[in-house]
């Protein structure tokens, strides 16, 4: 994924709001990029540009060498799950599989695989209103993984969840990203969440957001990592302090 001199403005004339940019980013395949910054700095705007939901007013966004196609280039998870509440877990997943063009004969196998991946085995027949907020967000994650597209985009997906559920979902997203090797862009306010999840953190200045800090994170990833031990390590805590300071000074600059 590649962003070249990307800028985005909303509105026109005297009402113009410069939301983001200029931003240049090269994100190699398999990277877990976390965008962090104060409220209103343009994180969601950048994510929408990468998803192809909006066209940048200036510059270019490329995913696998081409402009992003909304709904095709990336799976997206939003802050709220945005599921169909009257459908079952299975019904919601089937819609995603149909939309992704997966042949119907493969749905049962693919459905089971996705549910196992997000820790939701055995919930297929439950309605969305019968499962918890954390489980709903797991369904939204499974739905975003249904299409085997190269990119996974998550916009503050755990902001509305309690601390413990949030940690368990962070553990799972870290694991899913390591297993699937998918390029991931994750938006958050939280330095803690950023350091735990990211293989790279980009801190944005206040609006219009530009890159204030671009930091590779060398914490261990992949199978066998004990998430709680990682959160308690001196290295994790030093990085968390560094990122929290960077976010604060970028917001004040
Ligand atoms: N649809 C829109 N129309 C006009 N202005 C917008 C629109 N969406 C966002 N903005 C403005 O663009 C700027 C960046 O907003 P954006 O939502 O991208 O920031 P953010 O960093 O994701 O914020 P938050 O963390 O609070 O969600 C803000 O000044 C915001 O008011």
UniProtKB/TrEMBL annotation:
The keyword ATP-binding applies. Residues 1-231 form the ABC transporter domain. Gene3D superfamilies: P-loop containing nucleotide triphosphate hydrolases (3.40.50.300). InterPro entries: AAA+_ATPase, ABC_transporter-like_ATP-bd, ABC_transporter-like_CS, ABC_transporter_ATP-bind, P-loop_NTPase. Keywords: ATP-binding, Nucleotide-binding, Transport. One of its GO terms (molecular function) is ATP binding. Signal peptide: none annotated. SMART domains: AAA (SM00382). PANTHER family: ALIPHATIC SULFONATES IMPORT ATP-BINDING PROTEIN SSUB 2, TAURINE IMPORT ATP-BINDING PROTEIN-RELATED. This is ATP-binding cassette domain-containing protein. It comes from Streptomyces physcomitrii. The lineage of its organism: Bacteria, Bacillati, Actinomycetota, Actinomycetes, Kitasatosporales.
